[in-house]
Specification:
This protein is an alpha+beta fold. It has three domains: 4-119, no CATH class; 145-287, Jelly Rolls (Sandwich), CATH 2.60.120; 290-436, Sandwich (Jelly Rolls). It contains seven helices and 25 strands.
């Protein structure tokens, strides 16, 4: 099931305008000979990819657990699936790297099947066929509980009431970890508790290590959460370290009333955000040759006089360039913006050859679904020293942007929800020359074996 982890996130509500024209896709070759039915074809696709959110107690606005529930929504399902708006995972098909961890996107064959089914009248099919509804975890459980069990460490922020309306709020509590030894992190998830999902715009955590006399020193970013994000998985063989007796510093940004279609529109009492951390076994740091970190890489090209400015009913674009004096591996890419941002891309420029490689593109980005695009370790970009990361983001401050609350406003760079931001969170494994050459050689050998096996 591709999106079983999605249960803990917010859904972008589906439009109720079912009369909109639907993009036409080619019908499967056997569609005329073998009619596409719910019980034989479509039900399993919906169960595996949609019911995780569209069920009783789920975050979807309607339930899709059986044919009677699905059938009235068939035209809208067709439109959203054909436009690749559902499941809500904005990452362009056919551009750059496509092998991602936790990828929710449907295969084109699945999209074509749903489109053909609706075109044929959305029939039930053989009534004697019984489809089993998947047994999904509780929506308030942890994303990785099925994969890794319960977190090794759970840290909860201090409660804070969020009013039903008003200006942006920020909360910066501290939490002790009481961790007896340094540990390497396997995975992390930040999870707003209950109704807090609608009002927590982002919740970043930083590790601070003790330096004596009750003083602490920041060791860098630990984790980043933004609305809709399901978590971070650290690749095997590297260590993102949490030091003994560290404390966690939060920066939590909340928007009273909620953002866009996820809004609760009412007061949220005792708002709490939790950080779950899964550790590798003790001693793993001896096996992990390299360190990994997560940082916000800024984009300043496109700023006017040092400030991001988007005119009323206008557009803007920013870009940033970053390089390293040592080889690295890029493990994940997550663009960040607010309500006017609508697209992002990530490229690598190689000065020695003049070649630019497209890595990732997101052409229909939404602030209600932030995704950390985690590259499969076999394809994660291996970047030699001196190569340049090229990151770009685009902004649409017109009425054609469905997320735009007011196209007549000047929009500037800032931390408020109504402002804009221009950076991307990138997880980087820092290599040395020997490690870089080893990974390159391993990939070439694996590719050679694959090609030999396909002959």
């Amino acid at each position: 099931m591709k999106i079983v982890q999605a249960w803990s996130m917010h859904v972008r509500l589906l439009s109720t305008l079912v009369g909109t024209a639907v993009i036409a896709f080619a019908m499967p070759v056997n569609a005329q000979e073998d009619p596409i039915t719910y019980n034989s074809h479509v039900g399993k696709i919906i169960n595996d990819n949609c019911v995780v959110c569209h069920r009783e107690g789920g975050i979807g606005p309607m339930q899709f657990t059986n044919y009677e529930q699905v059938r009235p929504w068939a035209p809208l399902i067709q439109m959203r699936v054909a436009n690749k708006e559902m499941p809500p995972y904005a990452y362009d098909h056919g551009v750059g790297l496509q092998d991602l961890e936790g990828d929710w996107r449907l295969e084109q064959e699945e999209i074509d099947t749903i489109v053909a089914w609706v075109d044929q009248g959305a029939p039930l099919g053989d009534a004697d066929i019984t489809l089993e509804t998947p047994n999904f975890p509780d929506p308030d459980d942890w994303t990785f509980s099925e994969q890794f069990g319960q977190p090794s460490l759970i840290v909860a922020s201090t409660p804070m009431d969020i009013p039903a309306s008003g200006n942006d709020l920020w909360h910066s509590p501290f939490n002790a970890t009481n961790l007896p030894t340094d540990r390497c992190i396997k995975a992390m998830q930040v999870k707003p508790r209950g109704d807090a999902r609608a009002v927590v715009h982002h919740a970043n955590t930083y590790a601070e290590a003790p330096i004596g006399n009750g003083e602490f020193e920041e060791r860098g970013q630990l984790n980043e959460y933004a609305m809709g994000k399901w978590g971070e998985i650290i690749p095997d063989g590297v260590c993102r370290t949490l030091e003994a007796e560290s404390r966690i510093r939060w920066t939590i940004h909340m928007f009273p009333g909620g953002v866009g279609a996820t809004a609760e529109g009412e007061m949220i009492k005792d708002n709490v955000v939790e950080l779950g951390i899964w550790f590798h076994p003790e001693g793993y740091e001896k096996e992990a040759q390299y360190k990994q970190d997560l940082k916000a890489y800024q984009m300043r090209e496109g700023y006017e006089n040092g400030t991001l400015i988007i005119p009323p009913n206008g557009y803007a674009m920013t870009q940033g360039f970053h390089s390293f004096d040592h080889p690295v591996r890029i493990d994940s890419f997550q663009p960040h913006g607010h309500l006017r941002m609508n697209a992002a891309s990530f490229e690598i420029f190689y000065p020695e050859t003049g070649r630019t490689e497209q890595i990732s593109q997101i052409s229909n980005w939404s602030a209600t679904w932030h995704h950390s695009h985690i590259y499969n370790q076999d394809v994660a970009p291996l970047v030699p020293a001196g190569a340049v990361l090229v990151i770009k983001q685009w902004y649409d401050n017109t009425a054609s942007n469905p997320n735009n609350p007011d196209p007549d406003q000047w929009v500037v760079g800032g931390s408020r929800t109504g402002d804009e931001m221009s950076h991307a969170w990138i997880a980087v494994t820092h290599l040395d020359d020997e490690g870089f050459e080893k990974l390159v050689a391993e990939r070439k050998a694996k590719e050679a074996r694959s090609m030999a096996g396909s002959r």
